[in-house]
Amino acid sequence: MPRVWDVPVHDSTRVRDARVAAEHAAALAGLDEQRTSTAALVATELATNLLKHAGGGRVIVDVVAPPVLPADGQARPRVQVTTVDHGPGIADVPAALRDGFTTTGSLGAGLGTCARLADDFGLHSVPGRGTVVVARVGVPGPRVTGSGPAGRLRAGAVNVPFGGADYSGDAWAWVRDGDLVTLMLADGLGHGPEAARASDAAVEALRTAAHLPPAEAVRRLDRALSGTRGAAVAVAQVDTRAAVLRFTGVGNIGARLCEGGTWRHLVSRPGIVGTHRPTTLRQEEAPWADDRVLVLHSDGLPSRWSPTSDTCRTAADPAVTAAVTIRDASSPARPVRDDTAVAVLAPTPPDGP
Ligand SMILES: [Mn+2]
I need a labelling partner for 347 at 20 to 30 A (CA). Which of 16, 125, 153, 176 fits? Predict the structure, then answer.
């Protein structure tokens, strides 16, 4: 089940909780001692930064697939540490990323060190709106580059359980199969462990269904989810050779496609996968190109959420885009009301991830 640690950091006692969460996640991801300490250091530093520069925020730790999948599809999981704050933002991001840079004269490791030690690091900051940081730490290994047409896509997500729960009822997965790249988001009915069991079944079933067109894959998932309470599911698949995106959604998963700066909705059918599947499954098609960004989100995000230009940045790490979306849809005064997951599919920049 998608174990997620959501640590609100509003005083220094919670910095330790962020570190311990990273250590637990590292054990789940199978990291060795050295990479476990790196994950712990990154979580400690990012949590400390929230207090020093933003007046607090939240640290979300989970175990995720890497943002680029190797051609054989066998990807070792990484610990993902995400911070979201509504602070003043960072005026000079390149300076803040320089090794040793600190505005408070502390002896902290600094953002630059985090960026250097992490396998992936992304930061987005807008003065007045806050800062988002995503860092992933995995096992050492050969650097995965975007080899082959399917390697030209990246995916990432942020998953926040409702009310600080240990498990999210939302789950996402992405699978590479030949020229096909498939991204799925499932929202188990309600929240809590039973919701997590349903969305987890969807993740498991996708592993053996990612060679199928989305409508077929959803049919498979429907069988796999019988006996669970069911889930809203959206499956988006890019056929990289044909440069086509195919989409099938059932239930309340939002899907928006940015085409060179213009957003459109991809439409889901009403229903619940596993219990009330619609008899006919519609499959929508759209051309895919390097200026496209796809956002899938569960209904924890307010439906009136509207994407901004920050949501369509093709060069951003997909999980950074997901975290920015969650930040802009919530506020300290208006927290989310349900499990909230946002998953993003975007092109791999020409200079690699
Ligand atoms: Mn839900």
Answer: 125
Which residue in the block uniquely carries the two structure tokens 């600080």? Answer: 164
CA–CA separation, 272 vs 283, rounded Å? 16
Distances in Å between the Cα of 212 and the Cα atoms of 218, 246, 351 are 9, 11, 31
How many Å lie between the centroid of ligand 1 and the Cα of residue 212? 26
Q: What is the pLDDT of residues 104-146, one digit of tens each?
A: 545 456 888 999 999 999 999 989 889 999 999 998 766 666 5
34-79 confidence digits (pLDDT tens): 999 999 999 999 999 999 889 999 999 999 999 988 877 778 899 9
Distance CA 256, CA 283 (A): 15
Q: What is the value of pTM for the model shown?
A: 0.94
Structure tokens at 26: 């590292």
Place of tokens 């990154």: 42
| 251 closest CA partner among 287, 208, 207, 199 | 199
Distance 195 CA to ligand 1 centre (A): 7
Give whole-number Cα distances, 29 to 76, 79, 348, in Å: 8, 7, 24
Distance 225 CA to ligand 1 centre (A): 15
Q: Spell out which residues have Cβ within 5 A of ligand 1, the ion.
A: 169, 187, 338-339
